[in-house]
Amino acid sequence: MTGGGQTSGIDFVIAKAQDVLDRAAARGGAGALLSRTELDAADRFRNPADGRRYAGAHVLFRLMAARALGIDPAKAAGLAVHRECRSCGGPHGKPMIDGTSLSLSKAGGTVMVAAGLPGHPLGADLEAVPRELHAGFDGYALSPGERRTLENSDVESRIRLWVAKEAALKVNGHGLAVDPWTLHLLPAPLDPWAPAGWATTVESPGRGGLHGLDIAWVPAPPGFAAAIASATQPVIHRLDVSDPSLT
């Protein structure tokens, strides 16, 4: 079956890495869908479960790229993944495939991949909501204004802010080279024409590629929080890992 082709918005999948691998079995499994470099990386994990999670995440990344490009998923292994560090220019950082915009996130055994149109970079982040946070979390992650508005015990709201900032920092490859506390999230201007889901904007004056980004919190499995960031507000579509266009 050939890929379904990218919609005009952002598509995303959140799934267990093992479910991705199980679905990929019809295409010959990870060995048929990943590059040699990725297979070797998965094999280097001391814990086999960690290797399977890595493989599942990168299989989904390639299948989402194939779907966006409208090519047969069987050709996903041949797609060239490239990385370029924003800070040093080295071959590491945010993974990219020409012809689409992609973002990958992992949280334990669960993975998330979002895909959008080329030339419109996006970021996606997925995190498990812990029972408690380390003592220095607020100073590292939250702006002064955000700290003033949150109850001390509100872990879930803090993680929602965290995933939003992580997603924003992934859009143009800043990553954690930028301190998350320097980003402040403001309610998005009420726009009756904006697609549903876009709920807040990033305030970070003087930081190109971050100030003014839009944030959407998207549905995640129980116990998780997830967000997508973009410079625009396209329609967001949630896909299931069993969607025929992915396999």
Q: Any overview of this molecule?
A:
The protein is an alpha+beta fold and 247 residues long. A 5-stranded antiparallel sheet has the order 6-10-9-8-7. Strands 4-5-1-11 form a 4-stranded mixed sheet. It has a two-stranded antiparallel sheet with strand order 2-3. Helix 1 crosses helix 4 and helix 3 packs antiparallel against helix 4. The protein starts with 9 loop residues before the first strand and ends in an 8-residue tail after the last strand.
Number of strands: 11
Oligomer: single chain
Number of helices: 7
| Order of strands across the main sheet | 6-10-9-8-7
SS strand fraction:
15-25%
Main structural class: alpha+beta
Helix content: 25-40%
Distance between the termini: 7 Å
Shape: globular
Biggest sheet layout: 5 strands, antiparallel
CA-atom Rg in angstroms: 18 Å
Low-confidence stretches: none
Helix and strand run: EHHHHEEEEEHHHEEEEE
What would you say about this model in short?
The chain has 247 residues and is α+β, with helices and mostly antiparallel strands. Helix content is 28%, strand content 24%. The protein contains 7 helices and 11 strands.
Q: How does the SSE layout of this entry go?
A:
Elements: E1 10-16, H1 17-24, H2 30-33, H3 36-43, H4 48-69, E2 81-83, E3 95-97, E4 101-107, E5 110-116, E6 122-128, H5 137-141, H6 144-149, H7 155-171, E7 184-187, E8 198-203, E9 214-218, E10 224-230, E11 236-239
Parallel strand pairs: 1-11
Antiparallel strand pairs: 1-5, 2-3, 4-5, 6-10, 7-8, 8-9, 9-10
